[in-house]
Amino acid sequence: MAELSPMSDAPTAAGEPGWATLQTTSGLTLRVRAEQPGDGPVLVDLFNHLSPSSRYLRFSKSMDDPDPQRVRQEAERLARLGPPLDMAWLAFVDSPDQTEAAVGAVRFFRTGPNEAELAVSVRDDRQRQGIGSALLSFACTAAQETGIQRLTATFRSENRGIWALVKRSPYPVSWRLEGPEVHAVMDLTAPRAA
Ligand SMILES: CC(C)(COP(=O)(O)OP(=O)(O)OC[C@H]1O[C@@H](n2cnc3c(N)ncnc32)[C@H](O)[C@@H]1OP(=O)(O)O)[C@@H](O)C(=O)NCCC(=O)NCCS
After folding, report:
1. Distance between Cα 119 and ligand 1 center (Å)
2. Atom 18 of ligand 1, residue of closest alpha carbon
């Protein structure tokens, strides 16, 4: 759950402007900041820590052995998108073998005046530790602050992780099944669950 308004640039508990500190349900402390145009290498690092299965679920295409140059170009393209159409945040954790390791990313892309499409990924060795939930909650707050009323997520029905994550969204969700795909819509105008 976000402890700080994501759009705020007030200092966090750690005293760093532009950073938010989130606590996951598993007790992990995440440091989160907005993605910046120079974050291509961070996105590549995150991508390199996703299994082929997670890559497939996130990008809807097979990526067993992708061309590193293509990966770098795509990461740089994503990092450059930026607001107001694309809003993205990166989550970092310190671990014994890597300080400030990028462990997850959440973004939403405006698809209409009041609507945006969510995408979230957590590196495989950090999944199921509450990071996705913390990022989803954070993104919902950020989306609301920019006037978004509906946050949508489209994913393949076999994607148990995102399905479980969206089910635990702090806002009511409506679901539509369309062939192999699930369309979920979170209603950000409804009261937020505690
Ligand atoms: C989907 C994803 C972001 C979830 O992140 P996460 O950090 O593992 O999520 P959390 O730890 O917050 O888990 C939230 C809930 O979902 C459940 N969950 C997570 N992964 C699951 C899985 N593969 N199968 C079943 N339940 C799962 C957790 O148990 C938890 O439930 P709980 O609160 O009852 O314990 C992550 O699995 C991922 O990056 N997947 C690959 C990319 C992807 O599919 N992105 C979504 C499409 S854009």
Report:
1. 12
2. 161
17-34 pLDDT per residue, tens? 799 999 999 999 999 999
Closest atom, ligand 1, to C-alpha of 26: 11
- Residues in the chain where the model's pLDDT stays below 70: 1-15
In a domain, 149, yes or no: yes
pLDDT at 73: 97
108 part of a folded domain? yes
From 128, 133, 160, 167, give the residue whose CB has the most ligand 1 atoms within 8 Å, as the site to mutate.
Answer: 128
- Report the mean per-residue pLDDT for the chain: 90
Q: How far apart, in whole angstroms, are the C-alpha atoms of residue 132 and residue 30?
A: 11
The residues that bridge with 153 in the sheet, in sequence order, are 184
Cβ atoms 105, 120 nearer than 8 A = yes
Split into its structural domains, the chain has a count of: 1
